[in-house]
Write a structure and sequence with these properties.
The complex is a heterodimer of chains A (424) and B (301). Chain A has eight helices and 24 strands. With 424 residues, chain A is of the alpha+beta class. In chain A, helix 5 runs parallel beside helix 6. In chain B, strand 1, helix 2 and strand 2 form a beta-alpha-beta unit. Chain B starts with 7 loop residues before the first helix and ends with a helix. In chain B, the strands form two sheets. A six-stranded mixed sheet of chain B has the order 3-2-1-4-6-5, with helices on both faces. Chain B has 301 residues and is of the alpha/beta class. Helices cover 32% and strands 16% of the residues of chain B. Chain B has eight helices and ten strands. The longest helix of chain B has 19 residues. In chain B, helix 1 crosses helix 2 and helix 6 runs antiparallel to helix 7. Classes of the chains: A alpha+beta (424), B alpha/beta (301). Chains A and B meet through helix 3, helix 4, strand 2, strand 3 and helix 5 of A and helix 1, helix 2, helix 6 and helix 7 of B. Bound molecules: guanosine-5'-diphosphate. Guanosine-5'-diphosphate binds next to helix 2 of chain A.
């Protein structure tokens, strides 16, 4: 029994989630509560929080102080984007991308959302849906976060009233029908008092669903990666240059989609050559198959010239190849971008040059209205654009594959990452 | 394997290996900063996996404070030989002797701050454009917002106001002449993940981490190892205790914990029930609330 428990972590999955809510909806308190009730807080951290709570004259421990590192920065006006926090239960390990800040919100949330399996959207039960709720939900759907949990918080302040909760659930469902979100769950909570966060509430007998932590532990994430369309962007070519492995050419990379097995016929792009997979390995372990997001080294039966930025796919299922790509772009830099501006494009393991050819429309992310004839993009704008690249990209629609469908733009002068793009 | 998903350890491994390979692909002259601690040991092990059957295509750089545990040095030399990798040593003692830095004096004297100068000098001397380290975001709040690819200006400084957003797994290592990057492939690992990984992968670790008998003194609640660099204060009497170390930094400032965990499995159990962060045993972080952040800005790991 004991060794079973010990080995259980070799089966635990990893869930990455973001938290979204407007200021004072209780995001910090909720994260603090999750960490505290799942016993992920160390004594020295707790002592520090208890001391600050006492100093501020609170008669309860203010759990929001656990994530306080960033708040003091907010007060100092320092740009903060995403802070990462960690906790684990016997079932799963969790990575929280905590995106505080107000003005930079779009940029920050897009960053946090890019790697998330799930978004927690907080709604203050007293206020119901507000502008930020629409905005956050839209970004979650734009970034194709597969799962959303809507937490109706501060239920204690509305007498744990079922009608208040049901109204918010109905409003949210009506609004989110317009978005592409496949999996939405709802839970009424009090982050401050702990109702339905980790422990079931005694105050809401009418609620028959699961607690928030139970949802986080059980949401089905096995299909979050694409396991159908085989894609392997070559990251690095391993050449041992030793007598023992004289002719070894291994293609190192991380599987971006589908499943690869030795013996599979593969197509290499852009060369168009075909070959068969000879071996798949990582370290000295030989693998029978590889799927996203595994890092592996692959060898092929034939000697073909393959280098970083090439993509290995299947002859009957391969990515699109274009020099003109349509992209939903989130502009993330202080300096605006104008038509015909040039930049570097990073896409999978490939880097090419690109130019902004057309701004089709900007999106008002509160109303989702399209704004036509925009001359330029400024910080936090989201727009549908056309980009032309110096060489063809091998890509999939972002909806089909978040890895082969995403790109970033890098400024040629400052080298800053200035935009995030989702290929449509 | 009928279900297509990875365990959290395998996913973290895969992510770290991806980052290590990105470094080799994007930079001309990378290096791995090797402290001798478990995190950099895991990093070295992941680097081996990333390039097998080829050798690790970058050197291990050890910033030697001269105050290392002897066990760390023995392990380092064994590992370098085992991996067939090149070792480069930056010596804090040399920085002191050449007048680049001044040895701290007083009761809390440590060579931690001096390390930064030696590290930056070493990076400059060998023209490393990317230095990988085993830092984790869960270690300290200043690190929670650190990037995988952390940009440093030409003075080696970290500017929290000017870090690049990191999206998906698209890492931007473009830089101007003279600038370099620190890269943290195991950013998303926790102390527990590191131990579980060491356990499942059977990675040998320095004996310091396992419970053993040692002469220590109790200073302000920290059990410090008796060594030539520890100046005993009035009333301090060394005593034998059964201890182990949760981190292994500089010998005079790294506190031991009383423990009878003499196997990795027992360490995992101990970490699971431990109520103190591992940095709680390090005297350098206790100096002030923002100690770590200040050191980071100056170019510390
Ligand atoms: N009554 C009540 N107050 C809450 C709840 N959650 C958060 N708060 C309070 O709301 C305020 C803002 O919470 P905080 O977590 O700092 O919000 P953030 O800005 O979203 O991080 C604080 O005073 C919290 O104590 C709740 O469930 N019930």
């Amino acid at each position: 029994m004991k060794s079973e428990i010990k080995m259980s972590y070799t089966k635990n999955q990893l869930l990455r989630f973001t938290t979204a809510g407007s200021v004072d909806d209780g995001k910090s308190t909720l994260i603090g509560r999750l960490l505290y009730d799942s016993k992920s807080i160390f004594e020295d951290q707790l002592e520090a929080v208890e001391a600050s709570s006492a100093k501020k004259g609170f008669d309860y421990v203010d759990l929001s102080l656990l994530t306080d590192g960033l708040k003091s920065e907010r007060e100092q006006g320092i740009t903060i984007d995403v802070a990462y926090r960690y906790f684990a239960t016997p079932k799963r390990k969790f990575i929280i991308a905590d995106t505080p800040g107000h003005i930079q919100y779009t940029r920050n949330m897009v960053t946090g959302a890019s790697t998330a399996n799930l978004a927690l959207i907080l709604i203050d039960a007293r206020k119901g849906l507000i502008e930020q709720t629409y905005r956050h939900s839209f970004i979650a759907s734009l970034l194709k976060i597969p799962h959303i949990i809507v937490c109706v918080n501060k239920m204690d302040l509305v007498n744990y009233d079922e009608a208040v909760y049901e109204k918010i659930v109905d409003d949210y469902k009506a609004f989110s029908a317009k978005l592409e979100i496949s999996d939405i769950q709802f839970v009424p909570i009090s982050a401050l008092l702990g109702d339905n966060v980790v422990n079931r509430s005694n105050n809401m007998d009418w609620y028959k669903g699961a607690t928030l932590l139970h949802m986080l532990e059980n949401v089905h994430i096995e299909s979050d990666y694409n396991h159908i369309d085989s894609r392997f962007p070559v990251q690095y070519v391993v050449r041992p240059m030793s007598n023992e492995y004289h002719d070894f050419r291994g293609y190192a990379g991380r599987v971006a989609g589908g499943i690869f097995r030795p013996g599979d016929e593969v197509l290499v792009l852009p060369s168009g050559f075909t070959s068969k997979i000879k071996t798949i390995q990582l370290g000295d372990t030989v693998l029978e198959e590889a799927f996203a997001p595994m890092s592996i080294t692959m060898t092929l039966e034939d000697e073909i010239d393959i280098s970083r930025g090439d993509i290995i796919a299947k002859p009957n299922n391969h990515p699109e190849s274009e020099q003109d790509v349509d992209v939903m772009l989130c502009w993330m830099n202080q300096k605006p971008i104008n038509l015909n501006s040039k930049f570097f494009v990073k896409h999978t393991t490939k880097e090419v040059r690109g130019v902004l050819k057309e701004i089709q429309y900007k999106l008002d992310i509160n109303s989702l209205h399209r704004i036509e004839n925009a001359p330029q993009l400024v910080m936090n704008d989201i727009a549908r654009v056309k980009i032309r690249t110096s060489q063809p990209l091998f890509f999939d629609n972002y909806r089909k594959n978040r890895i082969t469908g995403s790109l970033i733009l890098v400024d040629e002068g400052t080298n800053e990452t200035v935009a995030a793009g989702m290929i449509v | 394997m009928s279900q297509y998903y990875l365990s959290h350890l395998k996913e973290l491994e895969s992510e770290a290996i991806f980052v290590i390979r990105e470094v080799v692909a994007q930079f001309e002259n990378p290096a791995l900063l090797f402290s001798g601690g478990k995190d950099s040991i895991v990093l070295a092990y992941l680097s081996k996996k990333a390039f097998q059957p080829a050798k690790i295509p970058f050197p291990l750089v050890h910033i030697d404070t001269g105050h290392n545990f002897p066990e760390t040095m023995v392990y380092r030399d064994w590992l370098v030989n085992e991996l067939g990798v090149r070792l480069v040593v930056g010596s804090v003692q040399e920085s002191i002797d050449s007048g680049r830095v001044k040895e701290e004096t007083g009761a809390n004297a440590s060579r931690n701050a001096l390390q930064t100068v030696t590290l930056l000098d070493t990076v400059e001397k060998y023209k490393y454009d990317a230095a990988m380290g085993g830092a984790r975001r869960d270690e300290e709040k200043a690190r929670a917002k650190e990037r995988f690819f952390s940009h440093r200006d030409e003075f080696g400084q970290w500017d929290p106001k000017n870090q690049r957003p990191e999206l998906w797994n698209l890492f931007n290592g473009r830089k101007q002449q003279g600038e370099h990057f620190r890269v943290f492939p195991i950013s998303n690992w926790t102390e527990m993940d590191v131990w579980q990984y060491i356990f499942t992968e059977n990675i040998p670790i320095p004996s310091l981490y396992l419970s053993h008998e040692r002469e220590v003194i109790n200073r302000d609640g920290a059990l410090l190892s008796v060594s030539p660099w520890l100046k005993l204060r009035a009333g301090e009497v060394p005593e034998k205790r059964i201890v182990r170390f949760r981190t292994c930094g500089d010998m005079p400032i790294t506190g031991a914990v009383e423990s009878d965990a003499d196997t990795i499995e027992k360490i995992i159990e101990e970490v699971a029930s431990s109520r103190k962060t591992e940095r709680g045993t390090r005297a350098d972080d206790k100096r002030s609330e923002t100690a770590m952040e200040d050191r980071k800005k100056a170019g510390y790991f």
